[in-house]
Amino acid sequence: MSFEEKINILLVDDKPNNLMLLEAILESPEYHLVKAASGMEALKYILKEDFAVILLDVMMPEMDGFETAKRLKQRDQSKDIPILFVTAMDPEEAMFKADLSGAVDYLFKPFDSDTLRSKVALFVDLHKKNRLLWRK
Questions:
Q1: What gap in Å lies between CA 69 and CA 85, rounded to an integer?
Q2: HSE of 86 in the Cβ direction (CA atoms, 13 Å)?
Q3: How many domains does the chain have?
Q4: Do 13 and 39 contact (CB within 8 A), yes or no?
Q5: What is the DSSP string of 70-119?
Q6: SS3 40
Q7: Measured between alpha carbons, how far is 134 from 54 in angstroms, rounded to an integer?
C-alpha cells in the first residue's frame, strides 16, 4: 500500500506521551497518523490534508478541545470530519460539551485499546465508503 493510499487520522493532544500511546495503539499499514500538539496545530493540518477522523484531547492549554472542535466545524474543509474526544473529564460534563461542539463520539481515560481501535475503524470505513460514493 503506497503512502497516498493510506487513510489520514489526526491525533491532537498537548502531552507527547498521550500522542505516543495513541500512535502505538492505532499503528497500522493502512493509516497515516498525523500528530498535533495543540488545537492551533490541528487547524493548520486541516488546511493541508483530508482526514477520516480526528481524535481530540479536551484539556489543552490556550485552546481546549471544545474550542478546537467548534473551529473545525466552522471550516468547509473540516466540517464533516468526525471528531472523537479522548478525555479524562467528568463524563457528564464532557458529554454535554462534546455534543455542543460537534463531536460524534468520546472515550474516557483510561480507555480500552480495542474500543479505540474499533471506533476508529468504523470512522475509517465510513470515510472510504463516502469517497467511493463521491467518485461515482
A1: 9
A2: 25
A3: 1
A4: no
A5: HHHHHSTTTTTS-EEEEE-S-HHHHHHHHHHHT-SEEEESS--HHHHHHH
A6: helix
A7: 21
Place of cell 455534543: 99
Strand order of the β-sheet with 83-87 is: 31-36, 7-12, 53-57, 83-87, 105-108
The CATH number linked to 17 is 3.40.50.2300
CA-closest candidate to residue 9, choices 108, 110, 133, 128 = 128
Domain of residue 42, residue span: 3-135
Cell of 14: 498537548
**Residue-by-residue pLDDT tens, the chain, 136 positions:** 444 589 999 999 999 999 999 999 999 999 999 999 999 999 999 999 999 999 999 889 999 998 999 999 999 989 999 999 888 766 666 565 556 566 778 888 889 999 999 999 999 999 999 888 877 5
- Rounded to two decimals, what is the model's pTM? 0.88
- 48, 24 Cβ separation under 8 angstroms: no
Cell triple for 38: 495543540
